[in-house]
Write a structure and sequence with these properties.
The complex is a heterodimer of chains A (819) and B (459). Chain A is of the alpha+beta class and 819 residues long. Chain A is 38% helix and 14% strand. In chain A, a hairpin with a 4-residue loop joins β17 and β18. The longest helix of chain A has 21 residues. The radius of gyration of chain A is 32 Å and the shape is globular. The two termini of chain B are 41 Å apart.
Amino acid sequence: MKFLFALIFALQLSAANLSIYPPQVTLHHIEARHQLIAQGDDNGTQSDLTRLARWTSSNPAVASVDAAGKLTPLANGEVTIEATHNGLSARIPVRVDGMDKPFSWSFRNHVVPVLSKRGCNQGACHGALAGKNGFKLTLRGYDPDLDHEVLTKQSQSRRILVEDPERSLLLEKASFRIPHGGGQLLKKDSLEYRVVRDWIAAGALPSPANASPATEPEVVDIEVFPPSIRLAPNAEQQLLVRAKYSDGRWEDVTSWAKYTSNDEGIAQVDDATARVKLIGHGEASVSVWYASKVAYARLAVPYATPVDPQKFTSFPRRNYIDDLVLAKLRALNLEPSPLASDSMFLRRAYLDTIGALPTAEEAENFLADPSPDKRAKLVDHLLARDEFNDYWANHWSDLLLVSSRKLGPLGMRSFYQWIRDSVAANKPWDQFARDIFTASGSTRTHGALNYFVLHKDPIDITENVTQTFLGQRLTCARCHNHPLEKWTQKQYYQMANLFARVGVKNGEEPGENYIFAKPAGDVLHPRLLRPLPPAPLDGQALRLDDPSDRRHHFAQWLTSRDNASFSRNLVNRVWGNFFGRGLTNPVDDVRATNPASNEELFSALVKDFSTDFDVRRLIRTILLSGTYQLSSDPTPLNAADTKFLSHYIPKRLPAEVLLDSFSQVTGSPTAFDAYPAGTRAIQLPDVQVKSEFLNIFGRPKRIVCDAGERSSEPSVAQALHIINGETLNQKLLAPQSVAALYLKLGLSDTRTLEHIYLSAFSRFPTAEEKQRAQAMLTAARQSGSGPSALPSALIESRRQALEDLLWALLSSKEFLFNQ
Amino acid sequence: MFRFDADRPVEFCDGTRRRDFLHAGALSMLGLTSTQFSALQAQGAVDQSKSPVNCIFLMLVGAPSQLDTWDMKPNAPAEIRGPFKPIKTNVPGIEISEFLPRMAKHADKYSIVRGMYHTAAAVHDTGHQMMQTGRLFQGGVEHPHFGCVLDKTQKLGRDVPTHVLLPRPIGNTGGNMPHGQNAGFLGKTHDPFVLNADPSDPNFRVPDMLPPDYLPSLRVDRRKNWREAIDRSVNRFENSQDARLLDSTFHQAYTLMTSQKAREAFELHRESEATRTRYGLNRFGQSCLLARRMVEAGVRFVTINMFETVFDETTWDIHGSRPFSPISCYQDLVGPMFDHAYASLLEDLHDRGLLKNTMVVACGEFGRTPKINPAGGRDHWPQCWSILMGGGPLKGGTLVGASDEIGAYPKDRPTTPAEVAATIYRGLGISLETELPGAQGRPIPIVDRGVEPIRELFA
């Protein structure tokens, strides 16, 4: 038994290749330590052999390596480090220098990271806005200078005692020699304790003796190894994090970085050791934070059941989307579903592209069309339909928060009209955004300018524009460096200062405003109490005395091809419309630490889109892909997949589309207050239009830019409304409803059923369905009529049976879901 | 089992005999097979030996100030003790704020836990999560509300939902995080039934609870049967979470509609004017009255949000400046609103013999700064606050823990939200050893190992 276990274990970790990461290392000082990772690779599946490999140094007097792959420098020189495992071996060169130079711990590069790692400066402790017990640090150490002052100058300097470091309050509390609300955070024999103690003993300087805070190297980047790998089920993987400093050197910061898994059902990470344990199948990412820099590692575990290779080769490859989806499915060993039937594709493409069902006639014609390229023709047809403009105008009106709530009827109308005109003209997305940020004048004639009526102050504009056009939530950085992202408070206020000179004044008509560039005005940084040169997030700054309209500078940066977030945001939002979830999810969250389900695919789409910013072409590419045209019928092997696109995931129709579909199939339109008869719900420019149905089914309020405002989750209230509410019931009951029409035309049961199925499901009923429905109608007729029934009673009972059958079809999952 | 016309044979058009679809579906809609259910029973998660204990959970959105309500410091300096004075209660040694005179008469029916604290960020949302699930949400895991855990572990198959949330879910409180009011990783089939209506509205009714006049029950039933038959012929939805949720919502809707008991429970007009007035003719007061009716009808857990948001609404969130509330509102509006509703609820439950098996918990999401701020208000302070617990197996008339001289930190018996969770679970008869199925089947204990209920509250 023992032998068997050992055998399995060995098999699991067999590798065809062995390599060491990083490929070379330089240790710069006496305290430098470096984790090495021995990584095995067997045909794309990797394994962490760090703890199994035998490590040796060519000259242990220069640098030694322990059994866990950790390097320690001993003298200046060069050595080769070797790892061997099961007959495989790998070597890397290691250089040691700086052993002859004095070394002291740095406040910003060592002490603050220790405090961050131990949680001292987190939001719940001394990093809180009000501090804790009179001791306040900056959140996660975003301002080391201020932290240094607080530690060394406040509290009569009892926190730091250079002459007797161990008696410093900082160490006494953190090691719990004096009671501390946060418990024991530093053990006396730990490296972290020694870092703080030795730093104090060396004078508790803001920067080491041979540097000044201005010249001391700072962290400019971090990288994590492995960035992306595939592992076997139940594998463990050691992570390695290295920081790059402004002087070009790299150091291992693994033990002081912080780690979080985005899916603990797949991967769990131990924050103390940076070891990841894989416990599920699929893909997870571990995000890494160090010194306000972020990175992430992607770890995939393929599904276990073998897939017939034929399933991969028969995947309908139509364009680059399919190649990249297929690569991911192969990597995760996920079987793709087959191609969707014509009727499934037809209904899906209509609903997703123009927000309407095909009529029975359209469905019948499409199904009867024998031409091999009919799907491509349908795609072009849909892209040219006027309903396309209604549907996407509604989509972007959600994004830009079009509503009469703050804009009034005039502003709401002109804002909406500009959006719809832009969609109809297929205005490139960069120009669409520029329209907002480069125009001046009347909001009545330049509808886009209503944006500045909705968002009046620079703070609101800054936070909204990053959410709307960049898919990033910046709000945290208003008060401190973003704790999870790379954005700093300085960047925030530099960005806000771009919008400090947007002027709004009343126009001639009620509800009309004029937007203009004011000649002066600045936003002050709240801590520095002075304006900072206006700059878009990571873009070039303008001089404070630059007289040009700052918004133009912003627009240029925003819509530049180099600004990947601009394209990622749009691509992800469009993708989400078709697939029910974004490549990063939620659809409006494309921050750096939210990895995509298929990054290669996401990058390719973004690259393609940013050549011309043509939204309609992007939609066309998606619609034509084999991926979009896969069946929604899962196979036993891919049923668990919800994000790697092995099959189409059914999604409930959006509120407006569902209401319009009810109207279309029943032949009874919905009336909206103050809108002309025949206006469809998707055409409403304003979410203030009263509709109980739309509210219950999750129409967004358009108050804050947040994709979560629109809900497609089923609820009991929705079920009750379908069963008892006035919407569907009244449509079925209406004198002009389709039930009346069927009776008036005297259609046979068979033809009636075909028509209903075609208009509701875009398909013919199966023989079994026909038989069943016919039996239902017959039974209903019999139960509603006796031998003495009057003809009018017969007609009434036949009509009621039709209504009830329609109700049952329109409340079924096949109808309520796009599939 | 839920048919309107139980005496009529059901016609099925596919020629098959009717199996009890709804009944067979009921357990699977819970996401539980009957073996899993038995397993939970065997684990002791389902304790059916005693009459079940209910819980009414009053979420005092905005967070009451401990110093101005249930933990007053009359001897502290003026900038600490604030504008209000303490009054005696019917339990010697327990004093509460002067604007709560009615609840002062019932101090024997609740205990005050004065050493509450939490260590997460001082935003409302985190406190809502912890006070209603026992945990802070991390690593993408959303934990279930107590009432949803109850639905998962002890669903009794009554006509009414296990867990009802009144009147509406918590909306925006500034943190853009989940508030811990749904079933989280247990799946939406265990979400509470949300009223989504204002019970103080003169035309209050549960939206769409009854079929319109022109639809006789015969047709409602026919539609239901036909719909089920049509749905059953398409099986592509078996793996879709949303589709399973849709099934369960229809199932719940039909159950609600067909139960006279469930219907009547929502009919507030059956209460006398005097009773309705006693609770307070406002959203919170009428929600508390409705909660009593819910419990009488068999609902096990009722969550009431006293407010929907903290912005532009007068609430417990007394920062002292717009868009928040001034401290004076405790005396003018918020305090009396709570006093009438809470006292009436305790009185009615007691008089009707329901208090002995109904816990009543009232809590905010954190406390408030001991020192009055420059705007004359108090800001967020998760380091120390007080909550009210009583009813069911929980003792009344007790003080648990104490804060320091200025209500800034627990001085004695600090208590965490996790301990409150353990107390509620213990009270409901759910074993603390229970493990819930998390993502990919990973078991998640309802409370972390080692977390104990508040012992002092159990006799």
